């Protein structure tokens, strides 16, 4: 036990890391904070250096006792043992984790504490008078620090580590580093000092005990991916510096050997044999050869080459990127008759080579024998194409040239020739079927077409399906058969006042022929005009000529137009010539020689509207006029009103067919207003409504006397008689409207329009009381529904 001064009047008795254990002796420490103390005792007097703090308690973590854990004792100078002093504790965990005896100042921990959860607690203590509650000492702060014990095992940052290292690596090559931590206090003891070791995975790898770096433990010859690719290790991390009694944590490390190019490709067989038909085109596959490589990925990629053999120029080889197989293809056309078989030597090697493992044995060789199969081939022309020449004036039947083809097969079948008429639609050429001679069927003209391309077909006699084509190009050679002519139509003018020898126009010529030495034209005045011509021609010697005047004055009134004939001759054989006419108009010119006034023909280019434009304008005007007339006539037409204006203007009508009316077009026979306004029509005088389509007769005006009908049907009969005898009534094929049916009668109206619209059952038995005239109606309407079912 120590007596510790905590402040003015304070004493603290507690345990510390360097607690004194002098049993049976009382020790007193004298001196202030930070000074050397004199330790006195009955048998001991020694001066020592303080090694602890006066305001800190140390408490061991993970206490397992059943009682409260004693921490220390607080003692105040104001506590005289009379029971008037009360100790009060506050701060972190006060009252729950830490309690103090208010009478004697003993400090205890109420439960088990873990340093890894909280390493220390800060508390404050004071004393008060129990009676007055007055503080006797100022509040003093102190710390309770937990003393660490080795209660936590090391833990790795990962449960499983994954690493890789190239195969055939040197000893000591780093693979991966594992890391573990310990929650215990690394500043005290060895509880957090870790040591790494391998518990499973020998002898391929090793681990650094301090850093956890895993390295290879065997040499390149023992770390071969093709032998073993995956390894698994168990690494331990032990605290207490690996001493006995320390705690251990473990982790798993999976290590993979990555591939390096340490294996060359090898052919699966040394000799390969293939066959290909001689008709195979360039690029046709012949066969595939296979080589294997124990490496993977890019290290297993390979390429093939033909290094020797009589088929080096006839065949090619490439690598299939998907399967890494060598694909042999036809490089040039094959001919069984010339060579029936070939032999080549093929080499294979990796595309990427590791210099550490390269050697002459990194390549492999294989022999490939290729046989050519004979097939029935079409005739073969001795040339890929033909070019022939013939003069354009050659006669029909003249031979242009010949083609030749033969059957390349051993049978040497005969060949016949023909022209593909799709290439000679005009049938200008033909070919002899036996000897292949090409000759003319019609005359040719180079100026129309200089080249002709036709296709000649060669077909076997024995097998017409075997045929081949060749292109024959025929060039027509030029013959001087076209005379030269003026390049354009020349027309010029001459001033009335001019001088002799005045230049007025330059002319040139063209010729459809194409002489090999080029064109050469000669110009001259026509012989018949040489002596009496008003103009002359001067040949410039460069295929052009100038037109000049021969006198000084010309009169537009005397002669307004001159025609100058010019003879144009070429310089080829046979010589061709033609006469061109130059038109010269006489004009009045100003002093500078510019034309001012010419004859009417020369003014034909004056501005104005063309005939086509005038016709178009006239047509547009006529169309507009027709539209206006049509629109006006439509507006003038009056609409004819319908017989019944609305659906509501409906009355019972009687249609009489006693006399034929005017029909649909009879719009003048009556006034339609009588149908629309019957009340007004009855009130009008009969003389004002005379019918305009018939002449009234006595029969119409005066009907014979008839017996008066019974009262119940009097209205119908009277209306019918009135309509029949009325000369002003509408035509008899029209509708006559009766708006007064049934008024004032007991029977009322028989019209369906005035009846009640109801689906309820009605009683018609009263019809039997109306007399014999209504017996038929009573029988029809008075019967039960079942009578008609």
TrEMBL record:
Family annotation (InterPro entries): Cadherin, Cadherin-like_dom, Cadherin-like_sf, Cadherin_CS, Cadherin_Y-type_LIR, Catenin-bd_sf
Q: Which Gene Ontology molecular-function terms are recorded? A: beta-catenin binding; cadherin binding; calcium ion binding
Q: Which residues form the signal peptide?
A: 1-24
Gene Ontology, cellular component aspect = adherens junction; catenin complex
Q: Which Pfam families match?
A: CADH_Y-type_LIR, Cadherin
- Cadherin domain: which residues? 76-156, 157-267, 268-381, 382-486, 486-609
Query: GO biological process annotations for this chain's record?
Result: adherens junction organization; calcium-dependent cell-cell adhesion via plasma membrane cell adhesion molecules; cell migration; cell morphogenesis; cell-cell adhesion mediated by cadherin; cell-cell junction assembly; homophilic cell adhesion via plasma membrane adhesion molecules; morphogenesis of an epithelium
Write the record's keywords in alphabetical order, separated by commas: Calcium, Cell adhesion, Cell junction, Cell membrane, Glycoprotein, Membrane, Metal-binding, Repeat, Signal, Transmembrane, Transmembrane helix
Its biological purpose: Cadherins are calcium-dependent cell adhesion proteins.
Q: Could you tell me what this protein is called? A: Cadherin-12
């Amino acid at each position: 036990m120590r007596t510790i001064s905590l402040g003015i009047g304070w004493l603290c008795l507690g345990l510390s890391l360097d607690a004194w254990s002098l049993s049976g002796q009382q020790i007193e420490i004298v001196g202030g904070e930070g000074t050397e103390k004199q330790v006195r005792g009955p048998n001991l007097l020694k001066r020592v250096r303080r090694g602890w703090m006066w305001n800190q308690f140390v408490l061991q973590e993970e206490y397992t006792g059943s009682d409260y854990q004693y921490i220390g004792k607080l003692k105040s100078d104001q506590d005289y043992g009379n029971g008037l002093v009360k100790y009060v504790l506050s701060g972190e965990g006060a009252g729950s984790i830490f309690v103090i005896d208010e009478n004697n100042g003993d400090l205890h921990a109420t439960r088990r504490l873990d340093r890894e959860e909280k390493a220390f607690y800060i508390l404050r203590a004071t004393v008060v008078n129990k009676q007055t509650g007055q503080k006797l000492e100022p509040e003093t702060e102190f710390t309770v620090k937990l003393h660490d014990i080795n209660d936590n095992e090391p833990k790795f940052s990962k449960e499983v580590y994954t690493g890789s290292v190239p195969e055939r690596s040197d000893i000591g090559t780093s693979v991966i580093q594992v890391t573990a931590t310990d929650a215990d206090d690394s500043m005290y003891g060895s509880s957090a000092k870790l040591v790494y070791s391998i518990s499973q995975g020998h002898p391929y790898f090793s681990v650094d005990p301090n850093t956890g770096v895993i390295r290879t433990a065997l040499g390149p010859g023992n770390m071969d991916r093709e032998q073993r690719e995956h390894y698994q290790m168990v690494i331990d991390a032990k605290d207490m510096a690996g001493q006995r009694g320390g705690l251990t944590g473990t982790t798993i490390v999976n290590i993979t050997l990555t591939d390096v190019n340490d294996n060359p490709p090898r052919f699966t067989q040394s000799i390969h044999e293939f066959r290909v038909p001689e008709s195979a085109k360039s690029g046709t596959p012949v066969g595939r050869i296979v080589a294997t490589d124990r490496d993977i990925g890019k290290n297993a990629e390979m390429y093939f080459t033909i290094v020797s053999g009589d088929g080096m120029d006839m065949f090619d080889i490439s690598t299939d990127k998907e399967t890494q197989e060598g694909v042999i293809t036809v490089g040039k056309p094959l001919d069984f008759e010339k060579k029936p078989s070939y032999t080549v030597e093929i080499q294979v090697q990796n595309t990427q080579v590791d210099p550490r493992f390269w050697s002459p044995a990194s390549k492999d060789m294989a022999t490939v024998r290729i046989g050519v199969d004979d097939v029935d081939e079409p005739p073969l022309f001795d040339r890929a194409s033909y070019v022939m020449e013939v003069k354009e004036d050659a006669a029909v039947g003249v031979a242009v040239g010949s083609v030749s083809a033969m059957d390349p097969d051993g049978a040497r079948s005969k060949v016949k020739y023909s022209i593909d008429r799709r290439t000679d639609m005009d049938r200008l050429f033909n070919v002899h079927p036996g000897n292949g001679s090409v000759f003319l069927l019609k005359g040719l003209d180079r100026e129309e077409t200089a080249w002709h391309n036709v296709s000649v077909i060669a077909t076997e006699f024995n097998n017409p399906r075997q045929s081949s084509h060749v292109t024959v190009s025929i060039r027509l050679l030029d013959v001087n058969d076209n005379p030269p002519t003026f390049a354009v139509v020349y027309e010029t003018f001459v001033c009335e006042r001019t001088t002799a020898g005045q230049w007025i126009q330059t002319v040139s010529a063209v010729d459809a022929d194409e002489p090999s030495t080029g064109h050469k034209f000669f110009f001259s005045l026509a012989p018949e005009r040489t002596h009496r011509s008003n103009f002359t021609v001067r040949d410039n010697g460069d295929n052009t000529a100038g037109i000049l005047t021969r006198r000084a004055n010309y009169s537009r009134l005397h002669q307004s137009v001159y025609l100058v004939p010019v003879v144009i001759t070429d310089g080829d054989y046979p010589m061709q010539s033609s006469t061109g006419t130059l038109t010269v108009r006489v004009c009045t010119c100003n002093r500078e020689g510019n034309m001012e006034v010419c004859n009417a023909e020369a003014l034909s280019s004056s501005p104005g509207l063309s005939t086509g434009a005038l016709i178009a304008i006239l047509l547009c005007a006529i169309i507009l006029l027709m539209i206006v007339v049509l629109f006006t006539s439509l507006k003038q037409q009056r609409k004819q009103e319908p017989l019944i204006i609305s659906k509501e203007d409906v009355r019972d009508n009687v249609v009489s067919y006693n006399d034929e009316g005017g029909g649909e077009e009879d719009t003048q026979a009556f006034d339609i207003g009588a149908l629309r306004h019957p009340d007004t029509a009855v009130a009008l005088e009969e003389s004002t409504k005379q019918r305009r389509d018939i002449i009234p007769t006595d029969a119409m005006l005066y009907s014979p006397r008839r017996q008066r009908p019974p009262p119940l049907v009097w209205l119908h009969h009277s209306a019918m008689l009135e309509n029949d005898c009325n000369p002003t009534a509408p035509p008899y094929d029209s509708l006559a409207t009766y708006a007064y049916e049934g008024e004032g009668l007991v029977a009322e109206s028989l019209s369906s329009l005035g009846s009640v619209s109801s689906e309820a059952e009605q009683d018609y038995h009263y019809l039997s009381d109306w007399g014999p005239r209504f017996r038929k109606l009573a029988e029809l309407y008075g019967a039960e529904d079942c009578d008609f079912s």
